[in-house]
Every structure is written in structure tokens, then in C-alpha cells.
Amino acid sequence: MSTDYKVVIIGAGVIGLAVSRALAEKGESSVLIVDKEDGFGHATSSRNSEVIHSGLYYADGSVKASYCARANRKLYDFCEKENVWYNKCGKLVIAQKGQEPVLQELFQKGIRNGVDEMRIISKKEIYSLEPNIEAELALFIPSTGIISAHELMSAFNRISGSTGHDSLFMTSVGDAHKNNLNEYSLFLVEHGSVESNVTANWVVNAAGLHSETIAAMVMGRKAPSLKFSKGEYFKLSSKWRNEFSHLVYPLPDIENDSLGIHLSFDQSGSSKLGPSAAWLELLNEDYSVTESLADTFFGEAKRYIPDLNITDLSPDYSGIRPKYFPEQVKQSDYYIRHEEGAGLEGWINLVGIDSPGLTAAISIGEDVAEWIVS
Questions:
Q1: pLDDT category, 259, cuts 50, 70, 90?
Q2: Cis peptide preceding 224, ω within 30 of 0
Q3: Mean pLDDT for the chain?
């Protein structure tokens, strides 16, 4: 007996959509995408800085490092081909007095990770590039940029739909189990009440914040576990619009596995600060912004934007990052695995895909599609 679909993708964020796009490019039409929201990209994928990362920060030998540098170039090429808005603006990672050795270490890590054309620049050159920024030294990375996450996901979704892929929104996965060697059964709940079952030869778990829960349906206690980090953003007043031409980052916050409260901007030139980093004990998808954090944001940003005033900040938005930590590793990484070694042939887990997931999405999608359509 044949299955309902060859592939079911759980999650219509940027990763799930990238997988569906890659399958479409390979001519695979029997695909169903399931998401609990009322449209694609409503959670982690749309609640971030929309940065195209270079691959600078990630640990030697990490999955993140292996994806980011090569994915960076692929993403720019895709944006050109599919008319997705981006700005290859470059980034400054700044160091204040006493932080120069840490900046040098980061520079060496970037070299090992294959980051293109980066260089350390002086205080004078920082001022020439960004007159509103004050720092002793900076690492200039020209391959970093910003992108419209919505346009990127829309392009993935359009390519997926052109091959006849189906989508079910407002639909959660209540349970999953393996029927036999080549078939999985998923119990779906649509609109909170309508129940149905769907079968597939392949299941791609790209459920983001809920990917641990989905993995546990078939793996039990052997499923990879996640930690959740909430990041909040504050926007700057209109007087700062178009006042910056590069992204500006402090040195990374190792303790909280964060890149620190950095300065970025969007397609309109509006500037924002963030994200903060706060560990959550439980997954509570509360996307409010804590107004009292304005003092913290101001204190961090004032170090490198001397003319900033506290009245320039107002609450913007927040996001929650799913983080996977391999055993005895302090820096989060991706868990990307076809679970055939666990007796689950046809089940693919994409767990803990936080930053630089937007950058890595195309490459992750293409690798998953290779497993399915070889």
C-alpha cells in the first residue's frame, strides 16, 4: 500500500521551506508541509536580526561553521536570481580598550572558518566608515549583510508551490510512529479539533521551538534536548534612520551563547538594538518586550554610540531561539541527522537551528534533499 505523501515536512519556517524548495528543484512533488501557525515563517524565522552571517563566530569543527561560510555565498546568489531584497552592507565587530586580544582571537577563528576578505581596522578608519560609532579597533567583515526574511521565505514557498507541494496550516502533530521499514504515520489536529492521519515514507522534523517534542514522539528519551533563549529588541527613534551603513556588533557574550546587543537596520533604514539573551526555564511563547530593559540596552549601546540618548529607545519585538548543546560543549550547535542509525530510516531531525539558520537554510535544505532524492 502506498503512502499519502513521499515526504512530510513538519514546520514552515525558513528551514522547512528551504527543504521543500530543494525537493522542488529536484522534481519531487509528493510533499506536504505542516505548521501550527496560520501561515509560514511566523515564529523564530521572522523574529531575528535578518542578518546574512559570514561564519565568523562558530567553533572549529562545528556544524554551524561547516555550513555558514559556504551558505553565505549561495544565499547572495539565490537573492540575485529570485529578486529577494538584500544589502551586502558589511559588519564591524568592535573592541574597546583592553579588548584587543579578544578581537585578535576572533579574527583567527574567522580565518579558520574561511571567512572572506575580513581585516582589522583602526579607530580612524572606523570613524571614516561610521562617524557615529566609537571604538579602539574593529574587525571589518564585508561578506555580512541583511536580508528580507519574508521575501526569502516567500521565494522558497513559491518554488515549492510551483511543483505542487501541499500545505496544512493551523495544524499540529499530536503523535507520530513508525508503521514499518518505509512508512511513518502522523496524527494531525487541524484548527484545534479536526483529527486526521497522514502517512509518509520520509518525515523532516523542522519544527523549530517544538522540534525536541516532535523528535521525542519516535525517539523517546534519546531525542536531542533544547534550551530556550529569549531575545528582545528595541528600536531607535527616527532621527537615527539611515545614520548607519554597516552592522555594528560588540564582542560576543560567551556566557549566554549570544552575539551581544548589536546595532542593525532594515530595508527602510530604521535602526534597532538587540537581541538581549535570557534563558527560559520552560517554553512559553510570550513575545512581549520588557520595557524596563531599556536601561540595559542603553548602557550597552552607549559604549559605542556616544550620542545616543535613553529617549531614543522604544520597545520593538522579541524572538525565542532554540539551542542545542552537544555533550561537554559550551557553544550551541545544530543537530542535523538522518536517524537511520537509531532504526528510524526516513526520519530526519533538524533540531536547534538558531542563528545563523537564516544564512544556512539553503545549504541545509539541499543536503536534506540529497538524502531523500539521491
A1: confident
A2: no
A3: 95
